[in-house]
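Same chain as my last thread, 243 residues:
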Amino acid sequence: MARKPVLRRGGEPASGRSRPRRAGRPKALAGAVRSRAEILDAALEAFGAIGYEAMSVRELTRRLGVSHNLVHHYFRSKALLWQAAIDHAFGTVSAELAEAFRAAPAQGDVLASLRQAMVIFLTVTARFPANGHIIVREGALGGARLDYIYTHYVAPNLEPWRALIGQAQREGKIRADIDIRTLFFLLTDGGAGPYTSQALAQRIGGPDPLSPEAIRAHAELVADLLLRGIVTAGQDVHSGGAP
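reply #2:
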């Protein structure tokens, strides 16, 4: 006599094909994202989009479609994940800016050097809009996270600008009342606006703000407009040649 199948609760056979899974979000795939850099890129976007407090490791794994264990393998806490994402992104920008300044031909005129620095800054930062989102959030809140960004990345990167401004003022080529803070915010909040507010820039119209041609044209226009506003009478903002 054939044996009756053993039934689980609810009448489902203990062996054989199981009932179909209910519809819903698919299980996380541990192999979907394998590299630490990919996790950091996604974390940076999430921290920039929704802020530190709202972003959780669970939210990150949901966005990536990976297991919680994969993220935990690299980063033991949200605080460590945030710091690693900042080092990854802001460190990359700092390194690329330093390399761009070193590789650029030396300018004999301080105004040409200032213009070149502005163009380099805007073209490099265009590739990292999430950095702008994060620094705006943390700059408004203040606290330990802002302290970390400022100490490790903002303050060191301001020094070359201080030197250029000081030299230009000593030579009488820019206004004496120009300070590094004003220039910083004009470049980061103003000049980088189309990159950090891409949706708004596209609604206003014009070319794709992140196309290489648009980035270059925008950077040069912003540099020219800023210089025309700060130079003393009779100075040529293009002296020394364009970068």
